[in-house]
Amino acid sequence: MGKNKLKKFAEMAEMPNVVQAPRDVLLAGGFTLRGHWQEEFFKNPNPIVLELGCGKGEYTVGLARKTPLRNFIGIDIKGARMYTGAREALDTELANAAFLRTEIELIENFFNPAEVAEIWITFPDPQMKKVNKRLTSTRFLKAYRKIMAPGGVVNLKTDSPFLFEYTRRLAELNGLEILDISRDLHGEGRTDATTEIKTYYESQWISRGKTIKYIAFRIGDGALAEPDVSDLEKDDYRAIPRFDPNVDPGR
Length: 251
What we know:
Order of helices and strands: HEHHEHEHEEHEHEHHE
Radius of gyration: 18 Å
Largest sheet: 8 strands, mixed
């Protein structure tokens, strides 16, 4: 591990807005903030919103600024990337933004039922060959349901035509209420959180001429089934690196 990463990890260990809870912590006795994020961490009763696979935390920080009466938690296992958002939130005294370093697969261990109001998933790997790893698959939706309040909303923002269409079909197949949908966010001239907050990877894809897609839907409570996507074409630009190791060493 390079000196830069070591320095970031050392700083993060001292940051009051960062919670680091690897698997061994959970196995050793559970997570004490589970069910107590509002009163013990944020010190307020405001709704909790998660950004899953938050990377540099652009949405966690951006939404926290735009919506002070909500609490935002960015979740990622990559600490060196998360450091960017955590540092910015701390330096600007953004009290309603926090970061949790762990694996998304373990999310049920960190929140009580109905403790989360909304989830943002921003530019995840589309996992075209591994349905169970897609963050909008039935596997993950079932996990989200265990921690979300009734009527909770899931937002997906992606550059991937495949993941967007898969998620749209999944929502329609299972009768999940679609609240908003766009196949070309920036081409519509919107001026809201879906366009005003851009992630590092979003800017990369826009510069390459790719359209950004968005879908928001309610989590629902009925049975879930996977949609048929056998006719969907795979994304045609997977050969383009999703990151530049010289620009983003934390990836």
